[in-house]
Design brief:
alpha/beta; Protocatechuate 4,5-dioxygenase, Chain B; two-stranded parallel ribbon; 10 helices; globular; metal-binding
Length: 266
Protein backbone atom coordinates (compact mmCIF):
# COMPACT_ATOMS: atom_id res chain seq x y z
CA UNK A 1 0.00 0.00 0.00
CA UNK A 2 1.53 3.39 -0.97
CA UNK A 3 2.23 5.94 1.72
CA UNK A 4 -0.12 8.87 1.29
CA UNK A 5 0.94 12.51 1.57
CA UNK A 6 -0.47 14.77 4.24
CA UNK A 7 -2.31 17.94 3.24
CA UNK A 8 -2.92 21.44 4.48
CA UNK A 9 -5.93 23.08 2.85
CA UNK A 10 -7.04 26.70 3.07
CA UNK A 11 -10.79 26.20 3.04
CA UNK A 12 -11.80 29.87 2.76
CA UNK A 13 -15.36 31.11 3.24
CA UNK A 14 -18.25 28.63 3.51
CA UNK A 15 -19.26 30.00 0.10
CA UNK A 16 -16.38 28.00 -1.38
CA UNK A 17 -18.87 25.12 -1.37
CA UNK A 18 -21.10 26.99 -3.85
CA UNK A 19 -18.39 28.98 -5.62
CA UNK A 20 -15.36 26.67 -5.63
CA UNK A 21 -13.32 28.69 -8.15
CA UNK A 22 -9.61 27.95 -8.26
CA UNK A 23 -9.73 26.09 -4.95
CA UNK A 24 -12.20 23.58 -6.33
CA UNK A 25 -10.13 23.04 -9.45
CA UNK A 26 -6.88 22.56 -7.52
CA UNK A 27 -8.48 20.13 -5.04
CA UNK A 28 -10.04 18.08 -7.83
CA UNK A 29 -6.64 17.86 -9.52
CA UNK A 30 -5.01 16.89 -6.24
CA UNK A 31 -7.48 14.07 -5.65
CA UNK A 32 -6.70 12.69 -9.11
CA UNK A 33 -2.95 12.89 -8.48
CA UNK A 34 -3.01 10.92 -5.20
CA UNK A 35 -3.78 7.29 -4.46
CA UNK A 36 -7.34 6.92 -3.23
CA UNK A 37 -7.34 6.81 0.59
CA UNK A 38 -9.11 4.14 2.58
CA UNK A 39 -10.10 6.77 5.18
CA UNK A 40 -9.50 10.42 6.08
CA UNK A 41 -8.52 12.01 9.39
CA UNK A 42 -9.06 15.77 9.31
CA UNK A 43 -8.16 18.46 11.85
CA UNK A 44 -10.32 21.54 11.24
CA UNK A 45 -9.80 25.05 12.57
CA UNK A 46 -13.50 25.08 13.42
CA UNK A 47 -13.40 22.31 16.02
CA UNK A 48 -11.63 23.80 19.02
CA UNK A 49 -11.15 22.12 22.38
CA UNK A 50 -8.82 22.27 25.36
CA UNK A 51 -7.63 18.70 24.78
CA UNK A 52 -7.63 16.49 21.66
CA UNK A 53 -11.07 15.15 20.80
CA UNK A 54 -11.63 12.46 18.18
CA UNK A 55 -14.95 12.08 16.37
CA UNK A 56 -16.21 8.52 16.53
CA UNK A 57 -19.67 8.85 14.97
CA UNK A 58 -20.68 6.08 12.58
CA UNK A 59 -22.49 8.62 10.38
CA UNK A 60 -21.20 12.17 11.09
CA UNK A 61 -23.75 14.91 10.55
CA UNK A 62 -23.02 17.89 8.29
CA UNK A 63 -22.65 20.90 10.61
CA UNK A 64 -23.65 24.30 9.20
CA UNK A 65 -21.62 26.35 11.65
CA UNK A 66 -22.13 29.78 10.06
CA UNK A 67 -24.81 32.43 9.73
CA UNK A 68 -26.13 34.85 7.13
CA UNK A 69 -25.39 32.85 4.00
CA UNK A 70 -27.73 31.83 1.14
CA UNK A 71 -30.30 29.12 1.83
CA UNK A 72 -28.67 26.83 -0.74
CA UNK A 73 -25.59 26.55 1.46
CA UNK A 74 -27.62 25.21 4.38
CA UNK A 75 -29.18 22.59 2.14
CA UNK A 76 -25.84 21.02 1.27
CA UNK A 77 -24.88 17.77 2.95
CA UNK A 78 -21.70 15.70 2.96
CA UNK A 79 -22.95 12.23 3.98
CA UNK A 80 -19.60 10.48 4.26
CA UNK A 81 -19.55 7.59 6.73
CA UNK A 82 -17.55 7.72 9.90
CA UNK A 83 -15.02 5.13 11.03
CA UNK A 84 -15.50 4.26 14.72
CA UNK A 85 -12.73 1.65 14.70
CA UNK A 86 -10.27 4.09 13.15
CA UNK A 87 -11.36 6.78 15.63
CA UNK A 88 -10.56 4.38 18.47
CA UNK A 89 -7.14 3.71 16.92
CA UNK A 90 -6.48 7.46 16.53
CA UNK A 91 -7.38 7.93 20.19
CA UNK A 92 -4.97 5.14 21.14
CA UNK A 93 -2.12 6.66 19.12
CA UNK A 94 -2.65 10.07 20.69
CA UNK A 95 -2.84 8.51 24.14
CA UNK A 96 0.46 6.67 23.59
CA UNK A 97 2.00 10.03 22.66
CA UNK A 98 0.88 11.48 26.01
CA UNK A 99 -1.63 13.89 24.46
CA UNK A 100 -4.61 12.91 26.67
CA UNK A 101 -7.28 12.51 23.97
CA UNK A 102 -10.97 11.75 24.41
CA UNK A 103 -13.42 10.13 22.02
CA UNK A 104 -16.51 12.12 21.03
CA UNK A 105 -19.09 9.65 19.69
CA UNK A 106 -21.43 12.37 18.37
CA UNK A 107 -19.23 14.88 16.56
CA UNK A 108 -20.16 15.77 12.99
CA UNK A 109 -18.22 17.54 10.23
CA UNK A 110 -17.98 21.33 10.45
CA UNK A 111 -17.54 23.46 7.33
CA UNK A 112 -13.75 23.42 7.72
CA UNK A 113 -14.01 19.68 7.10
CA UNK A 114 -16.93 19.10 4.72
CA UNK A 115 -16.38 22.06 2.38
CA UNK A 116 -12.89 20.97 1.21
CA UNK A 117 -13.76 17.27 1.39
CA UNK A 118 -16.75 17.89 -0.87
CA UNK A 119 -14.34 19.35 -3.44
CA UNK A 120 -11.75 16.59 -3.01
CA UNK A 121 -14.10 13.61 -2.92
CA UNK A 122 -17.60 14.70 -3.97
CA UNK A 123 -19.02 11.16 -3.83
CA UNK A 124 -18.69 11.28 -0.02
CA UNK A 125 -17.82 7.58 -0.01
CA UNK A 126 -14.57 7.67 2.01
CA UNK A 127 -14.90 7.33 5.81
CA UNK A 128 -13.96 10.48 7.75
CA UNK A 129 -12.72 10.95 11.33
CA UNK A 130 -12.52 14.55 12.59
CA UNK A 131 -9.94 15.64 15.20
CA UNK A 132 -10.06 18.84 17.22
CA UNK A 133 -7.52 21.67 17.39
CA UNK A 134 -6.18 23.02 20.69
CA UNK A 135 -5.78 26.79 20.18
CA UNK A 136 -4.39 27.37 23.65
CA UNK A 137 -1.49 24.94 23.23
CA UNK A 138 0.25 26.45 20.21
CA UNK A 139 2.01 25.18 17.08
CA UNK A 140 4.34 22.68 18.76
CA UNK A 141 1.39 20.82 20.24
CA UNK A 142 -0.35 20.58 16.86
CA UNK A 143 2.90 19.38 15.32
CA UNK A 144 3.10 16.64 17.98
CA UNK A 145 -0.52 15.70 17.25
CA UNK A 146 0.35 15.17 13.60
CA UNK A 147 3.52 13.26 14.44
CA UNK A 148 1.56 10.85 16.61
CA UNK A 149 -0.75 10.01 13.69
CA UNK A 150 1.94 9.87 10.98
CA UNK A 151 2.00 6.03 10.88
CA UNK A 152 -1.55 6.08 9.53
CA UNK A 153 -0.25 7.47 6.21
CA UNK A 154 1.33 4.10 5.49
CA UNK A 155 -2.01 2.41 6.15
CA UNK A 156 -3.93 4.25 3.44
CA UNK A 157 -5.23 7.05 5.66
CA UNK A 158 -5.12 10.62 4.37
CA UNK A 159 -4.24 13.16 7.09
CA UNK A 160 -5.52 16.69 6.46
CA UNK A 161 -5.21 19.97 8.30
CA UNK A 162 -7.88 22.47 7.22
CA UNK A 163 -7.54 26.17 8.01
CA UNK A 164 -6.41 29.27 6.15
CA UNK A 165 -2.89 30.42 5.37
CA UNK A 166 -4.02 34.00 6.15
CA UNK A 167 -7.11 34.68 8.24
CA UNK A 168 -7.95 38.17 9.46
CA UNK A 169 -11.71 38.60 9.26
CA UNK A 170 -11.41 42.20 10.51
CA UNK A 171 -10.37 42.96 6.94
CA UNK A 172 -13.84 42.22 5.56
CA UNK A 173 -14.61 45.93 5.90
CA UNK A 174 -11.19 47.23 4.90
CA UNK A 175 -11.98 47.63 1.19
CA UNK A 176 -9.74 44.83 -0.08
CA UNK A 177 -10.64 42.86 -3.18
CA UNK A 178 -9.43 41.73 -6.60
CA UNK A 179 -7.96 45.15 -7.36
CA UNK A 180 -6.54 45.82 -3.89
CA UNK A 181 -4.81 43.08 -1.92
CA UNK A 182 -3.98 43.41 1.74
CA UNK A 183 -0.26 44.30 1.92
CA UNK A 184 0.61 41.59 4.43
CA UNK A 185 -0.70 38.60 2.48
CA UNK A 186 2.09 37.95 -0.02
CA UNK A 187 5.04 38.62 2.35
CA UNK A 188 3.54 36.29 4.94
CA UNK A 189 2.70 33.48 2.52
CA UNK A 190 6.11 33.79 0.83
CA UNK A 191 7.82 33.43 4.23
CA UNK A 192 5.80 30.30 5.00
CA UNK A 193 6.65 28.81 1.60
CA UNK A 194 10.35 29.60 2.02
CA UNK A 195 10.60 28.04 5.50
CA UNK A 196 8.68 24.94 4.44
CA UNK A 197 10.92 24.50 1.39
CA UNK A 198 13.99 24.81 3.64
CA UNK A 199 12.61 22.33 6.17
CA UNK A 200 13.05 24.95 8.89
CA UNK A 201 10.51 23.53 11.30
CA UNK A 202 11.87 25.28 14.41
CA UNK A 203 11.44 28.71 12.83
CA UNK A 204 7.98 27.83 11.56
CA UNK A 205 6.89 26.78 15.03
CA UNK A 206 7.99 30.23 16.22
CA UNK A 207 6.14 32.01 13.39
CA UNK A 208 4.31 34.48 15.63
CA UNK A 209 7.63 36.10 16.57
CA UNK A 210 9.57 35.59 13.35
CA UNK A 211 7.21 35.75 10.37
CA UNK A 212 6.53 39.13 8.73
CA UNK A 213 3.06 40.48 9.56
CA UNK A 214 2.24 37.39 11.63
CA UNK A 215 -0.13 39.21 13.97
CA UNK A 216 -1.89 40.87 11.04
CA UNK A 217 -2.21 37.65 9.06
CA UNK A 218 -3.46 35.76 12.12
CA UNK A 219 -4.85 37.85 14.99
CA UNK A 220 -5.54 34.43 16.53
CA UNK A 221 -3.77 31.41 15.16
CA UNK A 222 -6.39 28.65 15.08
CA UNK A 223 -6.54 28.76 11.27
CA UNK A 224 -2.80 28.25 10.87
CA UNK A 225 -2.50 25.53 13.52
CA UNK A 226 -3.76 22.81 11.11
CA UNK A 227 -0.67 23.51 8.99
CA UNK A 228 1.48 22.23 11.85
CA UNK A 229 -0.74 19.15 12.17
CA UNK A 230 -0.13 18.36 8.50
CA UNK A 231 3.58 19.14 8.79
CA UNK A 232 3.95 16.87 11.82
CA UNK A 233 2.07 14.11 10.01
CA UNK A 234 4.53 14.38 7.11
CA UNK A 235 7.50 13.28 9.22
CA UNK A 236 11.13 14.33 9.05
CA UNK A 237 12.55 15.41 5.71
CA UNK A 238 9.19 15.69 3.97
CA UNK A 239 8.94 17.67 0.74
CA UNK A 240 6.48 20.56 0.75
CA UNK A 241 4.67 21.42 -2.47
CA UNK A 242 2.72 24.67 -2.51
CA UNK A 243 -0.41 24.67 -4.66
CA UNK A 244 -1.53 28.21 -5.45
CA UNK A 245 -5.30 28.68 -5.41
CA UNK A 246 -5.28 32.47 -5.44
CA UNK A 247 -6.30 35.12 -2.92
CA UNK A 248 -9.97 35.39 -2.01
CA UNK A 249 -11.49 38.80 -1.17
CA UNK A 250 -8.03 40.35 -1.31
CA UNK A 251 -6.94 39.03 2.08
CA UNK A 252 -7.68 35.28 2.35
CA UNK A 253 -4.80 33.42 0.70
CA UNK A 254 -6.06 30.02 -0.45
CA UNK A 255 -2.75 28.14 -0.47
CA UNK A 256 -2.81 24.35 -0.36
CA UNK A 257 0.23 22.31 0.71
CA UNK A 258 1.01 18.72 -0.10
CA UNK A 259 3.67 17.02 2.02
CA UNK A 260 5.37 13.89 0.68
CA UNK A 261 8.21 11.73 1.96
CA UNK A 262 11.56 12.93 0.62
CA UNK A 263 11.92 9.92 -1.69
CA UNK A 264 8.29 9.76 -2.81
CA UNK A 265 7.45 9.94 -6.52
CA UNK A 266 4.54 12.28 -7.24
Amino acid sequence: MPTLPSLYISHGSPMTALQPGATGARLAELAQAMPRPTAIVIASAHWLAHTPLVGGAAQPQTIHDFHGFPRELYELRYPAPGAPALAAHVTELLDHAGLAPRLDPQRGLDHGAWVPLRLLYPAADIPVVPVSIQPGLGPAHQYALGRALAPLRGQGVLLIGSGSITHNLHDFRAGYGVEREAPYVRPFTAWIEQKLAAGDTDTLLDYRRQAPFAQRAHPTDEHLLPLFFALGAAGDGARAQRIDAGIDLGFLAMDIYRFDDADAVT
